[in-house]
Every structure is written in structure tokens, then in C-alpha cells.
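Page 47, continued from p. 46.
Same chain as before, 87 aa.
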Amino acid sequence: GGLVSEPRWWLSVGSALLRRPGLWATAVRQAFRLAAPGWWRRPPFLPVPDAGYLRFRLETQYGSDHEPEPADVITYLHWCRDFAART
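Result:
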């Protein structure tokens, strides 16, 4: 479980993202890059990361006692967009 499995966390991230249309394409691109293989064959039929992978990434980034804030996701998307522009 954890915070990132709660709908209100995702709504907060979505709300922050809606206010930044310059990051929409980056968010979609990252969703597909991080999606579990074969995501279209399993409910919820959305390009979401594998739960184990997500848990691993969050623990290596934040430790076991903290989870990301929606602002952290926005910062990550800015980084992804800027990195892609340089390559």
C-alpha cells in the first residue's frame, strides 16, 4: 500500500500536473516507459509500473519511512523533460 496507492495522492499529482501543460507529453511518455510489460492484458488496463518495481524505486529514493510529495513528481517530470532535450 502506502500513500501512492491512495486515490487522493494521485488526484493531487494530477491536479499539479494539470496546471503545467508543458509537462503533459513528458508525463505520458514516462507513464509508458515505466509501465509493466504487458500492462494492456491485465486490469486496470492502464500503463502503471509493476508494484514491486515502484516499491523498490520509492524505497531507494526516500527510504522506508517517507514517500514522495506531488511536487516531487513534478520535479521528476521537469528533470525528464530537460534531460530529453539535451540528448
